[in-house]
Design a protein that fits this description.
10 helices, globular
Length: 250
């Protein structure tokens, strides 16, 4: 369920940490430094292999009252003959409530097309999972506005206005991600230019920011009125930094 009255802080753990014990340490640290009174709506998205472990910890501790479980991807269908895939039905059964769709790692590094992203988005909605849909240009040039419009059209093709409202849209400029060759920092002013393109196309959806968010820049992006939260990558597994970011969203 989308929480429109709270800022979102979503932790995308990517392929980290290296062991279940380290995952538990992150959650224990959150338990000791964040309370249910926090003004942020927190979601953690661990790798598939830790989903069950994290779900058990959330369900048996006080973390269950203020942290929800997300996944990093979803299969194109619920067909059982999909080697290496995890279906929406399986995610829902584990207690997953959110799922990242169309992350730049998958769009650009794994060549997921708009059609694939669109199908995964529809699959997530079918299973009543809240999609965290990543949108963003690879380069900031004179064509970036047109690129964003085309990406939005392909990603959300066939969705009703009601379904679009059920999505969190994370603006993720690929050129600002630290692992991108030649990356440069984004700024609130440049983000506002992108939001001016995205907002008319999704007038009732919550917009998030997700371009290498860390403790130094989180507050700058959270202060933008149009931003309803942040999608945090590598900093979300650095437990002390993640707590600082969560507190900035309060």
């Amino acid at each position: 369920m989308i929480m429109s009255n709270k800022k979102y802080v979503i932790g995308n753990w990517k392929a980290l940490p290296n062991t279940p014990a380290e995952a538990e340490q992150i959650l224990d640290f959150l338990s000791g430094h964040v309370t249910g009174e926090t003004a942020a709506s927190i979601v953690v998205c661990p790798p598939f292999v830790y989903l069950e472990d994290v779900a058990k910890i959330l369900n048996t501790t006080s973390l269950n009252s203020f942290i929800e479980l997300g996944a990093q991807d979803i299969a194109l269908s619920d067909e059982p003959s999909q080697t290496g895939e995890v279906t929406g039905e399986q995610l829902a059964r584990l207690g997953v409530r959110y799922v990242i769709i169309g992350h730049s790692d998958r769009r650009w590094k794994l060549a997921e097309s708009e059609e694939i992203v669109n199908q995964k988005l529809k699959r997530a909605l079918q299973h009543e999972l809240t999609p965290i849909v990543c949108i963003g240009e690879r380069v900031r040039d004179d064509q970036f506005e047109q690129f964003l419009k085309q990406q939005m059209a392909g990603t959300f093709a066939g969705l009703s206005s009601e379904e679009l409202r059920m999505c969190l849209i994370a603006y993720e400029p690929v050129w600002a991600i630290s692992t991108t060759p030649g990356a440069r920092p984004d700024s609130p002013d440049e983000t506002r230019k992108a939001l001016a393109v995205l907002r008319p196309l999704a007038p009732e959806s919550l917009l998030l920011y997700g371009g290498s968010v860390n403790r130094s820049n989180a507050d700058d992006f959270l202060a933008i009125p149009e931003i309803s939260g942040i999608l945090v990558g590598g900093a979300s597994v650095r437990k002390e930094e993640f707590v600082e970011i969560i507190k900035q969203a309060a």
